[in-house]
Amino acid sequence: MKRVLTGPVILGLLFAFIGWTWSGIWTGWTRWDVTLSAENGGVLKWYVDSGKGFSEDEGANTGVPASERFTASVLLPSSLPKSIRLDPLDRDGVIIIESISWREPWLGRSGTLAPEDANWSGVARGSSTDYGFRIEVAEGDMDPFGVWEGYDGSAPAWWLLLRMVSALLLGFIAFALGLLWNRAVKARI
What we know:
31% helix; elongated; alpha+beta; 189 residues; 6-stranded antiparallel sheet
């Protein structure tokens, strides 16, 4: 009986590890979209504070063209951060942010952030218009940014539970199929 279980146990553990890794790839990232227009192009940056402060390691950036409506999309870690920071551009000028939205992976949530709800820094003036939230960057300030204190996303425990269930389910299926295979082989001998 011991030899009959060795193969299925190893197969089950291998597939549990594959399930853990696979579900981590599918659940590890939340997509963030910012629709904006800027008179000067530049680089848009996102930062996430998961408890250790804002850092380049927990962020992403993308280029923004000048004088045209553009939707910038980035992937950030799926977790419930303490705060989120958006640096709309690294240049001075006028920026109009039409919308900010986020979409978690399958079985997750989605929603929007209101630009006017952020705590803005490096901005001479910010106001709501018919086209979106208009930001006039303070002259000489090359780092305007807005900070939101969290968002209504899924808790890290949810993603951990989802990964564990995926791993256990895949591991159990592989174990059961391994047992059936062993029985079929044993019956032929």
